Structures are given as structure tokens and as C-alpha cells.
Amino acid sequence: MTFQQHTTVLAGDAPGQSTTLYWYTAGPEDAPTKVHLQAAMHADEQPGTMALHHLLPMLRDADAAGRLKARFVVFPSVNPLGLATRVLRRHIGRYDLETGVNFNRRWPDLYPQIAEAIAGKLTDDQRTNLGTIRTAVGTWLDQQRPATAAQRLRLAILKSAHNADIVLDLHCDDESLKHIFTSPDLMPGLQDLADRMQVAATLTAEDSGGGSFDEVLPNLYRKAQRANPGFPIPMGAETATLEYRGQADTHDAMGREDAQGLHDFFAGRGLIDATVPDATPAPGPTPFEATEVLRADRPGLLAYRVGLGDRVKKGDVVADIIAMDGPDAFLGRNPLRAGTDGIILSRASAKYAVVGSSVAKIVGTEILPARAGGYLLED
Ligand SMILES: [Zn+2]
């Protein structure tokens, strides 16, 4: 039996305060593949926690039967700091209340930290080079002296993830269909995951501009490849942000289905010894720059004219914004129109909007000039 619960106690920022991070491991420690799974880095996003709640017994049973062929490290609720921030009976799980920093932004750019350490050590063997890079990152992580609880948490997560082959970060949207964010160079490699999850879309970006967790390792390997063109360096980790519908979609039935999808993905990869049915193909990847984040151009009350999954044309009305001030207050409606052809992937659950509120994500196929090379995230 390798299935085991672990706890890591992280010192807090206030005297006497500490936080306990719970995590699990399963599968042979010396397995050739390591999988790092985590949910609720945005601590107010629970569907992933529900999915991992249902996946853990599957891993425990497979472990007991000797069917795990990879080392699994699972953080069902990876951000206990974010769990603790409740204000005026509301849970603030997305941002560090002390600094305002989004928990899934500003993750480190690792390549510059290890460039010197790997110089002169690369060979013509890619496995060796991968090992050299991972060792250098591990050494750098060991040298870090985090000053705050938030930094200690980030370091603990990176120490687990940095040498993993598959890193899946489970999130959710506001009100949404399932989708994946990943790097373009990891597709179509991760299409089997998209199929097993039955996502509506896979959105790719090399750099969304925010330093998201799932971009840390692809960035590291991509930069290592570009800086050392004479040496074979693999993309050493398949990483993705998995968006499991909307925040309210935390239910046993969905969690069970999502856990089964992950189980079948791992089984399909030979990481769990189990026979699984073929997956139904999901749509292929599209550049995130082709997804419009439609924002309110005025304050008011949103009256949607579209539902999730609806296909819209450029110029179609996505929602009316009911005026809440001026001569037309509570009578007038102003249409907010789609800026591209595509599918409605997400909507806002809160219908009171201010200027700039995100109203919908529309997954199109054509790169939008306003998005190209810009900051892609909603924040
Ligand atoms: Zn999130």
C-alpha cells in the first residue's frame, strides 16, 4: 500500500498563526512518471476539490490492487490560506487579501534562475538534459527563503510540481462549460485529456501575460530549448489549467463524472492499469487570442439573450444592459454585441455589471487584433 495522507504546516504571517496543507501520495515512489494534481488554488473554486474527492478513492483502490503505474501527488485543496479569508460573510478565495495578488498570477520565470547552473552541462541525450534541468530547478527551490505564508505555500507547491511529468491545476469559471487552458506546444498531445473531460474548448497561449501556474514549466522548457538550440531538450511537463464548469457546479454527480474522466485519461496513458472505453472526441485547440472576453461598456443589469454553448455571429446581441441611472433608468436597455463569431463559453453569474465587468467569453477561431500579444486573462 502506497496511498498516504500528508500534512505540511506552514507558518503564518501573524504571531502564533499557522496553516495546514493536506495532500496525498499514491503509487510507487520510483515510478517513471510523476503526476501532480491540485485543485482550488483559487480557493473559491470547489468543483475540482469535489472531483479529487471522488478520484482519491479510485487511486486508493487501484493502489491496493497494485494497478498504479505512476506516482500521484494530489492536493485536493491546495490553498488553505485562501480558504481562511472570509470577509463580511463572503469568501474571498481568488486574491491574497493582504497584497491583492491573484493566487494564480506572478508565478516565477524559472529559466533565468537556472540558466547559469545548466551552462556547459547539456548533452546530446534528452533524458539527461531533462534531469539536469530538474535538478537545477530543485536546487534553486531549495535555496529560496520565503518571507510570507503566501510565499511558503507557493514554494511547497513548486517543490512538488517541478519534477512532475503531468501537472493538472483544477479550477472553474463563473458560469461556464468545461474547458482547458494550456500551451500550444502541448497540443495535440493533451487532446486525450480534452476528450476524457469532454470539454467545449481548449484555449492555448504561450504566455497569457499573467504568470499563471500552468505556464511555469512549459515556459521553463521552452526557454531552455530556445536558449540552447544545439541540445535536445524535451517539453518536460504536460501542464494544463482545467476549468470544471462554474463555481456553483459543485455536486457529487459532476465530481464523480470528472473523477472518472481523469481516471480514464490516466488509464489511457497506461498510468493506471485499467481497461477503459474509447473517448468521444472533443473539439481541438484554438488560440486563446481568438477568444473574446466581452465586457460591459456601461453599468447596469445584465439580461442575457444567449445561453452557454450558443453559437453567435459578430454583431449578435449577447445581453442587454438595463440602465440603472439617467433619464432612461430602469426603462432603457442597451444591447451588448458579440465582437466575433463563436461559441458562448462562459457568462457572469452576478447580473449587476459595472463598466469593464466580464459578461461572456466567446470562443472564436480568428485571432482578434485587440487580443494579439496582449494580456489575455480576465483577472
Ligand atoms: Zn481559477
From TrEMBL:
CDD domains: M14_PaAOTO_like. Keywords: Hydrolase, Metal-binding, Zinc. InterPro entries: AstE_AspA_cat (IPR055438), N-alpha-Ac-DABA_deacetylase (IPR053138). Gene3D superfamilies: Zn peptidases. Its cofactor is Zn(2+). SUPFAM superfamilies: Zn-dependent exopeptidases (SSF53187). Pfam families: AstE_AspA_cat. Residues 34-181 form the Succinylglutamate desuccinylase/Aspartoacylase catalytic domain. The keyword Metal-binding applies. It comes from the Bacteria. This is Succinylglutamate desuccinylase/aspartoacylase family protein.
